[in-house]
Amino acid sequence: MTWPTDLAERRLDEESGLPLPFVCEHDDGSGDLAHLSKKRVLQCALSRVCAACGLSGLPNPLPLLGTEDEVEDNGFRIPPMHDACLAAALAWTRLGRPVLGQTVARPAWRVVRTGGFDLDRPDGTGHPAYPTFRPHSVVSVREVV
């Protein structure tokens, strides 16, 4: 696997040995592939930075990586990524364990390309539990394995 330089230089997840995505790391440097940092997810949404490497310059249309359920519900947990980061990030989805905010391993993932999204932010009552990206102006949906 060839990782984009900015992603390859990130801290490694201790269990998998793979680069730890920006949205899975907390400000103190802790984190793991299974859990998302709500603060970092919101930072990506509001500052338009990549969920994987944390840098700006996202493509248009924006790629969102999600599970089949997220595509059906039109609600994604993971912010957009650069195309190169997204291609490399598929290694995380193939680990056969919960990753990127999922509570169980997901066998099938999809990439939705969209012209934009609405952001549902947690309202303090626990609804929604996580920031949720709701794409509009969907350009394409592609299954990845």
Automatic annotation (TrEMBL):
Source organism superkingdom: Bacteria
Protein's UniProt name: NUDIX hydrolase
Organism from which the protein derives: Nocardioides lentus
